[in-house]
């Protein structure tokens, strides 16, 4: 990670503005550290500090900006942070395309959601019980 620029919050906001243009009138970009501090999480906020719907951006130490949907049915935000941190810490982030990252995060999120539904289905069916009668009461 030594080859990367150490971002502070002001620099992270400047990176967002350079990538996406200035926010609409009455809005600004807000950033907070994400995960273990490798990334910044950025959002567009209104004058009251409320995030605008639509998504967040993760800003890497190389000043690349990664889009993450705010809809948990599309992207698992925490998983996105975990994956990008792993890519940066391993030195492999240069090989990652932002569009491909978004596609893979969508796929992995969908798998997690499908697994959670399968777990509940199995629980309802009684296959996760230790008793002989596996039907729900």
Salient structural properties:
137 residues; elongated; 3 helices; four-stranded antiparallel sheet; alpha+beta
Largest sheet: 4 strands, antiparallel
N-C termini distance: 55 Å
Oligomer: single chain
Placed side by side, the strands forming the largest sheet appear as: 1-2-3-4
Short overview:
This protein is α+β, with helices and mostly antiparallel strands. It is built from 3 helices and 4 strands.
Q: What does this entry look like structurally?
A:
- The protein contains 3 helices and 4 strands; from the N terminus they run H-E-E-E-E-H-H.
- The protein is elongated, with a radius of gyration of 19 Å.
Outline the secondary-structure elements.
Blueprint: H1 9-20, E1 27-34, E2 39-46, E3 55-59, E4 65-69, H2 77-89, H3 98-125
